[in-house]
Write a structure and sequence with these properties.
amino-acid biosynthesis; cytoplasm
Length: 171
C-alpha cells in the first residue's frame, strides 16, 4: 500500500487520529514534526525562534521526502502545505488526506497550547485568518474528512473508510 499522508491545520487531530489509524491498518506511523525535533534535538518552537520559519519549512520538505513511500502513515505539521512542492510530492507518492475541523473547534483546542509557535500571542481572528489562508492548500488533498464533532474512534473509522475507497480506485 502507498503511504498515507494526514494533513490539516494544527489541532485538527492528525497525530492522535494517525496513531489510532496506524494501529487499525497495521502500518508504521511517522510524525514529521517529531522526526524534525529528534534530528535537531530541539522543539519546533525553539527551531522557529532560533532559525526562523523558512529554515523549518526547508527541514520539513527534506524530512518528508526522506520517508518511505509505501506502508507508512505520515502525520504532518499543519504548515507542510505552505510549500506546493510538498503537496505535489504527497499526492504523487501516496494518499494525501485533509483532516478538516471547524476553525472554532480548532481554536478551543489550541487556545492555551504554548507548544505551538504560530499560536503564541495570536488572537482568535488571526488564527482563523491563517486557517482560511491555508484552506485552499489543504483542499488539494485526494480526500477530505471532516472530524468536527467526531470522537477519536469515529474520526479514525471515517479516515479508514476513506482510505479504503481511495485504495479501491487505484486498482
Amino acid at each position: 500500500m502507498k503511504s498515507i499522508y494526514l494533513t490539516g491545520f494544527m489541532g485538527a487531530g492528525k497525530t492522535t487520529i494517525g496513531q489510532a489509524l496506524a494501529t487499525n491498518l497495521s502500518l508504521d506511523v511517522v510524525d514529521t514534526d517529531t522526526l524534525i525535533e529528534q534530528n535537531m534535538k530541539l522543539q519546533i518552537k525553539d527551531i522557529f525562534e532560533q532559525y526562523g520559519e523558512s529554515f523549518f519549512r526547508e527541514l520539513e520538505t527534506k524530512t518528508l521526502q526522506e520517508l518511505p513511500v509505501n506502508d507508512t502513515l505520515v502525520t504532518t505539521g499543519g504548515g507542510i502545505v505552505t510549500t506546493q512542492n510538498n503537496i505535489d510530492w504527497m499526492k504523487e507518492n501516496g494518499c494525501m488526506i485533509f483532516l478538516y475541523a471547524d476553525p472554532e473547534v480548532i481554536w478551543e483546542r489550541l487556545e492555551n497550547d504554548a507548544t505551538r509557535p504560530l499560536i503564541k500571542q495570536k488572537k482568535k481572528e488571526e488564527i482563523i485568518e491563517l486557517f482560511d489562508t491555508r484552506l485552499p492548500l489543504y483542499k488539494q488533498a485526494h480526500i477530505t474528512v471532516d472530524t468536527t464533532g467526531l470522537d477519536l474512534e469515529s474520526a479514525a473509522e471515517a479516515v479508514h473508510n476513506a482510505i479504503k475507497i481511495w485504495s479501491n480506485r487505484q486498482h
